[in-house]
Amino acid sequence: MKFLVTFGRYVCFVGKMFSRPERFKIYAKNFILELDNLGLSSIFLVTIISFFIGAVVTLQGANNMSSPLLPKALIGFLTRQTLLLEFSSTIVSLILAGKIGSNIASEIGTMRITEQIEAMETMGVNSVSYLVTPKVVAAMFINPILFVFSAFIGLIGGLVAGLSAGVVGVGDYIQGLNMDFRVFDIIYSMVKCVFFAFIYTTIPAFYGYYVQGGALEVGKASTKAVVDSSIIILMVNLIITQIML
């Protein structure tokens, strides 16, 4: 019963988020700021993680394809498929859910306990739309771009690791990258990224917006937001995979 009540409040919360903004210029300005806060500030983290994961996938693939009957190009193929289909979309989104989700929940939660949200509503401002919509739209816009960037860096990391360990050459690796390539794989992952971005922004915003108490409750809300966002991302990942693949 408690779940249904929470889900109903979340649906109403999302409905308020999509109401007509009072001034488009202010929302456009906030959108640009959130692109930096949610996207550009995460590039370094995405770069480091993607590079080393690409390297690890390549080395593991080479270790499991030690048979001389298997062409070396399969190493590049395995690395590409792993990054495109799952890692650069789902795993990176889970990481961003921890980084961005906790930040959103704590930011909005702090505004709630310091009564800044009440002040907005007193002035007739739709606080949900003003605070949350730019974050959601910015994340849904930048997350597919981060996916492409992550996949590119991961493939470079795989090539560097393969050459350093002497398990695959440049020609074989590139041949594997081109092997049975489907544009649909990129479209599939981008669709997932859009849904994941919506999840890891709206759920933390919801928990932060309705937090009650003090700093301790804000911290608990941030933790719960990250956990719930991660679980729902994995569930949605399964649903989208069953529908699209």
Secondary-structure content class = mainly alpha
Note the quaternary state here: single chain
How widely separated are the two ends? 34 Å
Poorly predicted spans = none
Strand segment tally:
0
- Report the biggest beta sheet as strand number plus sense, adding barrel if it closes: none
Radius of gyration: 21 Å
Basic shape: elongated
Query: Would you tell me the overall average pLDDT?
Result: 91
Q: Provide the succession of SSEs.
A: HHHHHHHHH
Helix content: over 70%
Supply the number of structural domains: 1
**Strand percentage:** under 5%
Number of helices: 9
Description:
With 245 residues, the protein is an all-alpha fold. It has one domain. Helix content is 84%, strand content 0%. It has nine helices and no strands. The protein has helices at residues 2-17, 24-39, 43-64, 73-113, 116-122, 127-165, 170-178, 183-209, 215-244. The protein is elongated, with a radius of gyration of 21 Å. The two termini are 34 Å apart.
